[in-house]
Amino acid sequence: MTTHPAAPELACDIFCAVVDNFGDIGVCWRLARQLRDEHGWRVRLFVDDLKAFHALCPEVDATLARQEAMGIAIEHWREPTHAGDTLAIADVVIEAFACELPHAYIAAMARRDPKPVWINLEYLSGEDWVADFHMRPSPHPRYPLDKSFFFPGLGKGTGGVLKERDLDARRARFDAAAWWRERAGIERPGAAQTVVSLFAYENPAVDSLLAQWRDGDAPVVVLVPEGRISGALARFFGLPKFSAGMTARAGALEAHALGFVEQPRFDELLWAADINFVRGEDSFVRAQWAKKPFVWHIYPQADDAHVPKLDAALAHYTRALDATERDAVTRFWHAWNGAGVPDWADFWGHRRALEARAARWADELARIGDLAGNLVAHATSRIVR
Ligand code: TRH
């Protein structure tokens, strides 16, 4: 742990309601660890779904009301009103993704002297308007509480995205040969094979893509973490299921199903592949730090609210590509998100340009600063002592 002798240890409560999948708790868990490890904060995490949490951190026991893992106090947030048996209010309170804090907790926040800093941590979006709302006050209708928005983003003037201080060093130390033997049970593929990692929701475009890989001239190795897309792989290969440890082959395509790993190890999959298909929020961010080409399956929202977010991310990521490359990436991402049929040869024909862009984009993104550090600066500037 990095200690900060000059700074007092601040207490922070993070509230996380799991809507579905792993992204809500994925972001909160990563942030909690960073606040603890890199900033020396004392963190308590309230989570309503410990089963999803257990998948990311097997140390978490889904049956316990209260426990500690990796230096973080974890409370099973059982009902809307529950906020721990004691109402000790932290210095900084983070409401993740506009989940509603317990009323008793809010009332206790209002009674606390000095008042806590209350932060509404929003979902990530690369859209331009985000910078205008980032860190803006969000007054409470009833209580005189200091609440403000905190917007992750991909551009200047936003909160940025999470990036641990040791991430690049861990990536540089990654032992690919050992990883392939341990995780996929085979020797690392040679340069002639393209390695694809496939983490996605159910996706009607996947059959066409698998068929293109199967029928293509160049060998493709696909790594598929067990999950929502596994059923499509099973159907494609005519198998009853496609679960961890299974391998399937057809034409030029070879696929390996992988088990779900604890969150700190997820990056290794991205480092092992040549191109990463990712989804939601947290894996989308990790793919950017992996400095490899990637394709985003965005979380679909009602009324296609996700489409401008997809295009905003494309605008950032493809900014420095030439028009042909940019169009190919845009077509492929759109097809993977329901608009059209993906054309692998058209897209992967730009492999070298995409690889170069991926490395530069990660450097550009890093210039905004890491979200945890930005959030600490924002919170500490508002703390009343
Ligand atoms: O799981 P996601 O789709 O999560 C979400 C939620 O659906 C949420 O409601 C939505 O609002 C949000 O996306 C945008 O995708 P995401 O965000 O990539 O989270 C997956 C997490 O799972 C991420 O932290 C990486 C982790 N993971 C592992 O820890 N081990 C694994 O083996 C795999 C495959 C993933």
Automatic annotation (TrEMBL):
Coiled coil: none annotated. One of its GO terms (molecular function) is protein-arginine rhamnosyltransferase activity. It catalyses: dTDP-beta-L-rhamnose + L-arginyl-[protein] = N(omega)-(alpha-L-rhamnosyl)-L-arginyl-[protein] + dTDP + H(+). Pfam families: EarP. Belongs to the glycosyltransferase 104 family. Protein-arginine rhamnosyltransferase that catalyzes the transfer of a single rhamnose to elongation factor P (EF-P) on 'Lys-32', a modification required for EF-P-dependent rescue of polyproline stalled ribosomes. This is Protein-arginine rhamnosyltransferase. It comes from Caballeronia calidae.
